Amino acid sequence: MIRLRVLILAFLPVTAVAQTWVHHRLSVENGLVQSQVASVFKDREGFLWLGTFGGLTRWDGFECINYQTQDGLAGNRISSIVQKKDGTLIFGIDGGGVSVFKNGRFDTLSIQPVLSGQAVTCLLLDPQETLYIGTFGDGIWILPESGPPVHLTEQEGLPGLNIWTLRAGADGSVWIGTDGAGLCQFKNGKITSWAIRDRGADNIIRAILPLPDGSVLAGLNSGGIRQLRGGTVLPFLSGAELTGKTIWTLGMLPGQTLLIGTSDGVLFYQNGKLTRIGPENGLPAKEIYSHLITPEGWVFLGTSGGGLAWFKPGQLASWSGEIAGTTVLGIAEDPSGTLWMATYGNGVWVNRGDRWKPASFQNQLPDPLIWSVTAGHSGKLFFGTSGGLAVKAGDRFTTLRKKDGLSHDRVYSVCETREGVVWVATRKGANRLENGKLYPPGNPLLEKTIVWRITEGADSTVYFCADGNGLITLKNGRFSVFGKDQGLKGDYVISALKSSDGRLLIGTDGAGLTVVTGSKTEILDARNGLPDNTVYAIEEYRPGHFLLTTNKGACLWTEVNGKRSIRLLLKQDGMVSNEHNLGSALTDSQGRIWMGQIGGLSVYDPGLDPDPVSPPVVYLTGVSVFDVPLGNVLPELFSWDQNYLKFSFTGINLPELSPLIYSYRLEGLDPKTLSGKERTIQYTNLSPGKYTFRITAVNDRGMESRAAVYSFTIRQAWWKSWWFYLALALAGAALVSWLIYNRVQQLLAVERLRTRLAADLHDTIGSGLTEIYYLAEMGRSDSGDPAQTDRHLSRIGQLSRALVKSMSDIVWLVNPGRDSVYDLIIRLRESYEDILASSGVEFRTGSLDVLESVHLTVDARQNLFLIFKEAVNNSLKYSGGTVLSLTAGAGTRDFFIELTDNGSGFDPAGKSSGNGLVNMKQRAGAIGGKLEIRSEPGSGTRVRFEGRL
Predict the structure, then answer these.
(1) What's CA 638's distance to the chain center, in Å?
(2) Residue 488 CB: number of other CB atoms within 10 A?
(3) Mean per-residue pLDDT for 830-840?
(4) Other C-beta atoms lying within 10 Å of the C-beta of residue 820
(5) Is residue 246 exposed (0-12), middle (13-18) or buried (19+ Cβ within 10 Å)?
(6) Whole-structure pTM over 0.70, yes or no?
């Protein structure tokens, strides 16, 4: 077991690095609710929860969702966050007690109002899910998973009621940091305390860290860190670096590196070395309130005023300070491990002890514009400058120029082979340097063209990157060309590498990367993953793992066991710039990759960048119908008209922020899986049926999340359902039956009409004509008696007029253009016009226009005509009245006709020798109506018919 040794800081070297380590920040400008982050917590779903002095933020790496008192929180000063196994989140609130968050809703803890308004400073949830609540002024509340709460105060042995921090020990104990009462341990129901009152200590414990060996570190408000070991408090770290600094938080990174969050930056301590990271290293604020360490070694820091910052110590750093803004054209490492840097116009720099300084021999260089620096196998340093080649052997300098046989004074790169041959690449061809003398290259293609870079492979093959002539190789004394005829995408070659598995990688200016595997070539460019088609440098840092530098960032390309992934390192990830330089990349003896860029230098340690422990996580965050969100509970069934659905989802890949590729498919509609970077997808006019929406997320390392799945059904429209079709068929059959029935009834009605007309013609017209015939014969036989002849002729005239009237009634009855109630009333009035005029009876009718639209069948017209003809006859014969009134009216479904007179009236219940009233009622019933006759002696008579239209 590794132990952190007890040391005093005054005797420790403290390194204040000049690099920028901290590259990522979440601030109020990015959506954070407030910039003072007192607590950082990652929940079981992968979301990051940030408790601030102004509310709560949930972050998925893309979007912030903020909560404050108006959303249900008991207060806005969030001091601590824990989560139960069932997913319930618990928030300690300074001045508000405790809030819980479950199923998308906030609530207060069950023991409120005991804690209501309390200053809750810290929370602890042990493996048994017992909740410990530290307060400032009311001691500690303990809430078991079951059973009554327990209150720890001075009466139970707590030395003070002001609690700053709670931490769980490996043995089940709870460690307590107090405000002025020292360090305490609660174990088996007993409290033990230790005062820390040695020189410089203030006994205020702000941070606690139990160590694997059973000891405990205590961070003080002032005075550094103490260690409790074997019941004795010992010095751990103190001295000038921590004097007057508050230790807010303590943590342990993988590899036993101690993290110390202070009021003046964050410190990392390992193996006797203390390194400080502050604002000069990219930290957005110097005071560190809280931290979170992931299993991969990422560090999240909650700051006071700077929001959230995070980084992975040592993984990626960019150099600032004296070289800031310098364009770096080359990097080399000599056998002693010293790093050398070539710059554009700023000479050569050397790195010793993590600091870059100008080389002491600047004035011996032929030109300050240094295109390259090369550490040869012989121990010599070669500097390619705009004024020639400079060779440093120990303290001795040799300069070679065009006058010495160099093809051109601008030297782009140098390669010293294992056999001791030095090749020089210039603006006008290549040269061979042997024993201090320069020679032509021995190949015409290398004599006048620009040669950008020369490298040697593991098999001693020398590669010449020629401008416009492809890649020229030299092996066993023979030159060969790999150009477009051999499958090269572009002839302007600027980098080349023979990989550990035998593949040849050729970087071009504008045509991407050509990968040659045996006789097969493949192109990797901006269409399939590269950020840019110009590949300046190629480094293989592990078998199958390559770094490519371009104009738009560095590319980490992995090709192992047929599985490919491409990641980018960009300025947003901590690089000085996205624009790199020709040949300016080096993998040093520690495995770190140095990259020269426009404006500075970055270093990446792939050893500190393993694949994440787990793949990204994807969640379906919402479903909307016609852009109206459905809320947290998603239905399984939609109606036919809820067929415009939008799905919202998010992938969590924290702490990395590289864009995720989402693969989604709506099974039941999409024939294949679709992909993209958008986090919403909308489907319109979905047909009824069963669907399953399936979404996954893939990060830039090729790791795919588990699928989020949502199944639902859109119901068939009611008019498209089987029962509707059955009902429609039945209704159709009923309609056909009804039409047939009505047609039959119409035919029967016509037949009945014909029969009735025949009977009427026979009974009325036939008998009348017969009677006229006999009267004519009788008149002829009585021709000798003029009086008798006049009587017969008078009778013939009466019968003829009656027959004409009957024929007129029959013609009117069968006329389809006279089928309204209006026509019926007009017919009645016209029928009695002469009689009424001669008898002096006034016939009145109301407004009849509205009755023109009320149509009657032939049966109804005939029966109603006969009913009211009989009523008029009766009134004229028996009532002795002077006024007849005929009125009618119609509603939406029924109508009425009413005849009244002002005659003598009669008793309808009295005996009658005729059948007139009975026949009238029978006729009314035959057409589906009701006839009402009201009369009293001396009060006139009213005959009213009511029927349905």
Answers:
(1) 21
(2) 21
(3) 73
(4) 17
(5) buried
(6) yes
Return d(Cα 770, Cα 793) in angstroms, integer: 14
- Considering only CA atoms, which of 437, 411, 414 is closest in space to residue 426? 411
> pLDDT (tens digit, 9 = 90+) per residue, 94-137?
999 999 999 889 998 877 677 888 899 999 999 999 999 999 99
Q: Is the confidence at residue 768, as pLDDT, over 90?
A: no
Q: Are strands 273-277 and 14-16 parallel, antiparallel or unpaired?
A: parallel
- 534-584 pLDDT, tens digit each: 999 999 999 999 999 999 999 999 887 778 889 999 998 889 999 999 999
What separation in angstroms does the CA of 406 have from each of 175, 293, 423? 73, 56, 11
| Residue labelled with tokens 């550990």 | 500
Residue 803 DSSP label: H
pLDDT tens digits, residue range 397-422?
999 999 999 999 999 999 999 999 99
DSSP 854-913: -B--HHHHHHHHHHHHHHHHHIIIII--SEEEEEEEE-SSEEEEEEEE-S----TTS--S
Query: Which three-class secondary structure state does DSSP give residue 226?
Result: strand
Between CA 182 and CA 193 the distance in angstroms is 7
Cβ–Cβ under 8 Å, residues 219 and 249: yes
Contact 803, 764 (CB under 8 A): yes
Cα angle for residues 102, 105, 110 (degrees, 5° grid)? 65
Helix (H) or strand (E) holding 547: strand 545-550
- DSSP letters along 735-798, please? HHHHHHHHHHHHHHHHHHHHHHHHHHIIIIIIHHHHHHHHHHHHHHHTTT-HHHHHHHHHHHHH
The C-alpha atoms of residue 943 and residue 884 are separated, in whole angstroms, by 11
Q: What is the dihedral of CA 176, 177, 181, 185, to 10 degrees?
A: 20
Residue at 640: amino acid letter:
W
Q: How far is CA 107 from CA 76, 111, 150, 485, 544, in A?
A: 14, 12, 21, 72, 53
- Residues paired with 232 in a beta bridge: 229
Structure tokens at 436: 């201090």
Element at 675 (helix H, strand E): strand 674-676
Q: Is omega for the bond preceding 358 within 30 degrees of 0, making it cis?
A: no
Distance CA 87, CA 142 (A): 20
Matching residue, tokens 């929860």? 49
